[in-house]
Design brief:
Length: about 425
């Protein structure tokens, strides 16, 4: 074993960074044995230097992250600051000054992954980011390496623990959205400002990363269609139950049937209780991958938290250090397929539509005609009437999102349709 240590600069020492530092210390001997050389924490960049950080030598703490990555003797920079800047500039500077990079930064990778990969390649360095998607769950490496000989057609995942916790609460207790969110906040599963989670921004960043890797093409955050889950109601869950389904916020990345394009989207959807993703409870994450040769694979585990996320960061650190010692680099960006990302209108799926209608003869026929005129075939219809008003629940066969949008616009114009109570896609069948 080499005795000269590999030097690691840690950028950020918060929820994830503090656990990375702890595991680097407590597992130092095992890490050294697995890598073939000891790893040494050479510096820790933070925003608030006076904060007490247990187990970390105060002499290592700095607020000058740029100077740390420019030192020239750093082998690996671990970026766990988050956000776009200064993380982006620091990573680029790290490559230019001879370091490889491990990052957990989904927002940055989804927005600027291509440029960062190009910077890594230009400097012959590694960029690893297993922790950026679904915390501890090995997913990037299986897609990038284990499935490199297969053809992935679909990635369907629960990639945000906060929203899964809220939806699971609504499902199991009958609670409304706000009540379930309040509980998630009280238990520390939701942040004070939960927008990034409940509006689907976090999941959309992960969908962009997953789609790019799975389909060997570039998918940017802006390419991902996004709908949050704040409008899911207890009534939606009741409807889902009647269909033998539950509701999950899903990230869905698909290759078109003709193989010529891909789509990436995040939205709440009904899935059958028999689907493996339906049984993912609480704040857990799971990703279901369908590919030509392997068939169906499911990856499951904790998608966030300091120690679970640090586990993924440390796995990357070991891989990057091994590459460093052997003088090699791991796989870089693979975007050779250069497939276009189709708009949401091209997505084909099933729909569950709940309408408030007048309870009088002929309404059902009128509604059915609108669906037929837009080429959307109806699978089932359920009608419940009360005091001159009725609700009509229509479940469709597979249709394009554009056809469904046209149908709903036309339905809203019918005098007999008082309102469209909810539209939910039905996935996983
Ligand atoms: N938390 C999770 O469960 C989780 C899961 C998966 C991925 N991630 C990703 O991991 C990354 C870190 O998340 P986190 O939860 O650990 O965040 P966090 O707890 O907010 O920690 C951020 C750290 O960055 C430091 N920092 C902020 N601005 C800085 C600057 N300009 N220069 C130097 N240091 C700076 C902070 O310093 P102070 O300590 O002085 O404030 C803090 O130590 C993010 O990209 C996140 O998306 C997190």
């Amino acid at each position: 074993m080499r005795t000269r240590p590999l030097k690691v600069a840690l950028l950020g020492c918060g929820v994830v960074g503090s656990e990375v530092a702890r595991i680097m210390t407590t597992h130092a001997d095992d890490l050294a044995a697995r890598i073939g050389a000891p790893v040494e924490l050479a510096g820790v960049a933070v925003r608030r230097p006076s904060k007490v950080r247990e187990g970390i030598d105060p002499a290592l703490i700095t607020t000058d992250a740029t100077a740390l990555v420019k030192r020239g003797d750093i082998d690996v920079v671990v970026e766990v600051i988050g956000g776009i800047e200064p993380a982006r500039g620091l990573i680029t500077t790290a490559f230019e000054h001879g370091a490889s990079v491990v990052s957990a930064n989904k927002a940055l990778l989804a927005q600027d992954g291509a440029a960062l990969h190009a910077a890594a390649e230009a400097n012959d360095k590694d960029l690893y980011y297993e922790a950026a998607v679904a915390g501890a769950i090995p997913l990037i490496r299986p897609l990038r390496e284990s499935l490199a000989g297969d053809k992935v057609n679909r990635v369907l995942g629960i990639v945000n623990g906060t929203t899964n916790f809220i939806l699971d609460k609504m499902d199991s207790t009958g609670a409304g959205y706000q009540e379930a969110l309040d509980e998630a906040t009280a238990l520390g599963y939701a942040e004070a400002d939960p927008t990034a989670d409940v509006e689907g921004f976090d999941a959309a960043a992960k969908a962009a990363i997953l789609a790019g890797i799975a389909f060997h093409t570039r998918v940017r955050l802006d390419d991902v269609y996004r709908e949050g889950m704040t409008e899911v109601t207890a009534a939606d869950f009741a409807s889902a139950k009647e269909m033998g389904c539950t509701i999950k916020l899903l990230a869905i990345c698909e290759r078109a049937e003709d193989g010529q394009s891909v789509t990436a989207r995040v939205h709440p959807a009904m899935i059958p209780l028999t689907h493996p993703l339906a049984s993912v409870r609480g704040a857990y994450n799971a990703v279901f991958v369908e590919s030509d040769a392997s068939g169906q694979l499911m990856f499951y585990g904790p998608g966030a938290g300091g120690a679970p996320t640090a586990s993924a960061v440390l796995g990357d650190l070991v891989a990057v250090c091994r590459n460093r010692l052997s003088g090699a680099t791991g796989p870089g960006e693979s975007a050779y397929a250069a497939l276009p990302v189709s708009p949401m209108g091209d997505v084909v799926t099933r729909y569950h539509i709940s309408l408030d209608v007048a309870d009088k003869p002929g309404v059902l026929a009128q509604v059915a005609t609108v669906f037929a005129e837009h080429g959307v075939s109806i699978d089932t219809v359920r009608q419940q009437g009360k005091d001159g008003e009725a609700s009509l629940v229509v479940v469709t066969h597979r249709a394009s999102d554009a056809a469904l949008v046209g149908t709903v616009e036309a339905l809203r114009k019918l005098d007999t349709v008082r309102g469209v109570a909810s539209i939910m896609r039905v996935e996983g069948e």
